[in-house]
C-alpha cells in the first residue's frame, strides 16, 4: 500500500484567458495566460495506491462515482502510473469547496490537487514547475492552480516548456474579486469542446492570439505596477474578446444568461458613477468583479438590488498548493 497523501489546491480566475489548444494530447495552449488564485474556492483530494484494488475508486464528496464519470481522472492516474512505475490502482477522495454547482473552475483546482496528491502518493517528488506541467495534462487551467497569487502559464512549444510560474505571490496590494454566482442552465458546450470549435471555425482566431499576446505583456506590467485600473481594463477587454470568439464560431454558442447581462450592466453603471470595478467571465454564466476591498461594500449594495446576498462571494488572492502525507 502506498502513502496516503492529501493535497489542497485553490481555483484560479484567468485575467488573460486560455481559449484554444495547439496540441490536444499534450494540452499545449495557443497562447499564454495570466490568472489570480482565489482564497475562497478550493479542492481537497487524497490519493492512496492499493494492491488489492482491481480498478481506481473515485469518491466525490464521499460518493463513489461511476467509472464512466471518473474516466478523465483515471486516465490522468494512468499518466502518473506510467511516470512513477507505480503498478496499483488508487482510491481517490475529493471534496470541492465551492458553492454547489456554481461552475467556478473546479477542474483547475481539481486537477491541480489530483496531480499533487497522486504524484506524491506514487512516490514522485516533483518541483512546483514539474507539478504544473503534470496538472496541465489533466486540465489546462489546472496548470496555474499550483501557484498562489498571480501566475502566468507560458504557452511553450512542447511538454517541457509549457508550465506556469508565480508572477506575484503573496499579493501585497488591495485587489479582490466578487464572484456573482448565477443559476446555471445546462452548459451549452464544455470548455474543451467549445475552445476546439472556436479554433476550428472562428475567422477571428488569429486576431485573438495576437491580441492575447499583447494583453500578456500589458497585464504583467500592470500587476508589477499594482495598478488595479489597468488590470481591470485589460481583463475585461480580454474576457469579452474570448466570448466574441464563441459568438463567431460555427455553430455559434455562448455561456451568458439574462442574469449575466444584468450583472455586467450593474458593473458598467457602478463604473459610470465613479466606482473602480471591472468584470470577467469564464465558461459559464457567473460574473467575477475585480475591485479594491474599500469599494466592496458599495458594490455589494448595488448588486443586491438584483441578486441575493448568498449569490455574492467576496474573495481575495489565495495560496498555492499544499501537500500533506499521512
Ligand atoms: C481559463 N477557461 O483561462 C479559461 C477561460 C475558461 C475560460 O481554462 O480543456 O477546463 O480541460 O484544458 O481548463 C476552462 O477550460 O479546459 C478554462 P481543458 P479548462 O481559465
UniProtKB/TrEMBL annotation:
<dbReference type="InterPro" id="IPR029765">
    <property type="entry name" value="Mev_diP_decarb"/>
</dbReference>
<keyword id="KW-0456">Lyase</keyword>
<feature type="domain" description="Mvd1 C-terminal">
    <location>
        <begin position="178"/>
        <end position="311"/>
    </location>
</feature>
<keyword id="KW-0067">ATP-binding</keyword>
<feature type="domain" description="Diphosphomevalonate decarboxylase-like N-terminal">
    <location>
        <begin position="9"/>
        <end position="164"/>
    </location>
</feature>
<dbReference type="InterPro" id="IPR005935">
    <property type="entry name" value="Mev_decarb"/>
</dbReference>
<keyword id="KW-0547">Nucleotide-binding</keyword>
<dbReference type="Pfam" id="PF22700">
    <property type="entry name" value="MVD-like_N"/>
</dbReference>
<dbReference type="InterPro" id="IPR053859">
    <property type="entry name" value="MVD-like_N"/>
</dbReference>
<dbReference type="Pfam" id="PF18376">
    <property type="entry name" value="MDD_C"/>
</dbReference>
<comment type="similarity">
    <text>Belongs to the diphosphomevalonate decarboxylase family.</text>
</comment>
<dbReference type="InterPro" id="IPR020568">
    <property type="entry name" value="Ribosomal_Su5_D2-typ_SF"/>
</dbReference>
<keyword id="KW-0444">Lipid biosynthesis</keyword>
<dbReference type="InterPro" id="IPR014721">
    <property type="entry name" value="Ribsml_uS5_D2-typ_fold_subgr"/>
</dbReference>
<dbReference type="InterPro" id="IPR036554">
    <property type="entry name" value="GHMP_kinase_C_sf"/>
</dbReference>
<protein>
    <recommendedName>
        <fullName>diphosphomevalonate decarboxylase</fullName>
        <ecNumber>4.1.1.33</ecNumber>
    </recommendedName>
</protein>
<keyword id="KW-0443">Lipid metabolism</keyword>
<dbReference type="GO" id="GO:0004163">
    <property type="term" value="F:diphosphomevalonate decarboxylase activity"/>
</dbReference>
<dbReference type="InterPro" id="IPR041431">
    <property type="entry name" value="Mvd1_C"/>
</dbReference>
Amino acid at each position: 500500500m502506498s502513502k496516503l497523501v492529501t493535497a489542497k489546491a485553490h481555483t484560479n480566475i484567468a485575467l488573460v484567458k486560455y481559449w484554444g489548444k495547439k496540441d490536444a494530447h499534450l494540452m499545449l495552449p495557443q497562447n499564454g495566460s495570466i490568472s489570480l488564485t482565489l482564497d475562497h474556492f478550493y479542492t481537497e483530494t487524497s490519493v492512496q495506491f492499493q494492491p488489492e484494488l482491481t480498478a481506481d475508486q473515485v469518491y466525490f464528496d464521499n460518493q463513489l462515482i461511476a467509472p464512466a464519470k471518473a474516466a478523465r481522472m483515471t486516465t490522468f492516474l494512468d499518466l502518473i502510473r506510467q511516470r512513477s512505475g507505480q503498478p496499483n490502482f488508487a482510491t481517490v477522495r475529493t471534496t470541492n469547496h465551492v458553492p454547489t454547482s456554481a461552475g467556478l473552475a473546479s477542474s483547475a483546482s481539481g486537477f491541480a490537487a489530483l496531480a499533487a496528491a497522486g504524484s506524491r502518493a506514487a512516490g514522485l517528488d516533483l518541483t512546483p514547475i514539474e507539478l504544473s506541467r503534470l496538472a496541465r495534462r489533466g486540465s489546462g487551467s489546472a496548470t496555474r492552480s499550483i501557484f498562489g497569487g498571480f501566475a502566468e502559464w507560458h504557452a511553450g512549444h512542447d511538454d517541457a516548456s509549457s508550465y506556469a510560474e508565480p508572477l506575484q505571490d503573496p499579493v501585497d496590494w488591495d485587489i479582490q474579486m466578487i464572484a456573482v454566482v448565477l443559476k446555471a442552465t445546462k452548459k451549452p458546450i464544455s470548455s474543451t469542446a467549445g475552445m476546439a470549435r472556436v479554433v476550428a471555425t472562428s475567422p477571428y482566431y488569429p486576431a485573438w492570439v495576437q491580441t492575447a499576446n499583447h494583453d500578456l505583456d500589458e497585464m504583467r506590467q500592470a500587476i508589477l505596477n499594482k495598478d488595479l485600473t489597468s488590470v481591470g481594463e485589460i481583463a475585461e477587454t480580454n474576457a469579452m474578446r474570448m466570448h466574441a470568439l464563441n459568438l463567431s464560431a460555427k455553430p455559434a454558442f455562448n455561456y451568458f444568461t439574462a442574469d449575466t447581462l444584468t450583472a455586467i450592466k450593474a458593473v458598467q453603471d457602478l463604473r459610470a458613477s465613479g466606482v473602480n470595478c471591472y468584470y470577467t467571465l469564464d465558461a459559464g454564466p457567473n460574473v467575477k468583479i475585480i475591485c479594491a476591498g474599500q469599494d466592496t461594500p458599495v458594490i455589494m449594495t448595488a448588486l443586491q438590488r438584483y441578486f441575493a446576498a448568498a449569490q455574492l462571494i467576496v474573495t481575495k488572492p489565495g495560496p498555492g498548493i499544499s501537500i500533506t502525507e499521512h
